[in-house]
Amino acid sequence: MEARSAIRWYCGSLLAVVVALFLTASLGTTDGAAGDLKATCAATPHPDACVRALQAADPAAAAKSTTPRGLAEAAIRAASTAGAAAGEYARREMDVSKDNGVWQCLNECAEDIEEALSHLDDSEGDDAKLREVNKFLDTAEQDAWDCDDSCKGAPNNTVKATLLAKNKDFEALMAVALSLIKRVTAGDAPAPSSSSPP
């Protein structure tokens, strides 16, 4: 069962990379659209990661990605893709790891990443679902797992370094998604009272 799940994640990740390469080669952006995207991403915690992720949006999402909601949904998809790649990498390396510390590091990080991915699924089209993702990401930002802590006891090697780098990308894209979702859901919050002190 885990092998099928890992293969599905791998295929999904591979498909996302192929789509991103195709779009980069064939579509391009206009200077105005690129400027708007850069301005939007400048307001996120990781502007460079935001621009890279949103420029790699799939063709079906590209038309919707100019709206704040479309950008938020594109960021969620990008975070999901990065998380799937990190989780799949961890699970694949667990199958060949001989070191108990590295195996434990991979397992704990994979479990946390998979939990996060379960909250990012099916966030499109429904305001209630978008608010749920917002709530999860807001909580995750405050109580985030830390693969660095899970991997402290593991020896430094390329497997650990690669996992931590992939996890860092995933966390950056979750922070970008949260920032963009907050722009969309800001109208949902009650307006502050305008009473002034005497």
UniProtKB/TrEMBL annotation:
InterPro entries: Invertase/methylesterase_inhib, Pectinesterase_inhib_dom, PME_Inhibitor
Pfam families on file: PMEI
This protein's UniProt keywords: Signal
SUPFAM superfamilies: Plant invertase/pectin methylesterase inhibitor
Domain Pectinesterase inhibitor: 32-180
Entry GO MF terms: enzyme inhibitor activity
Signal peptide start-end: 1-28
Domain of life per record: Eukaryota
UniProt cross-references to NCBIfam families, sorted A to Z: PME_inhib
Name of the protein in its database record: Pectinesterase inhibitor domain-containing protein
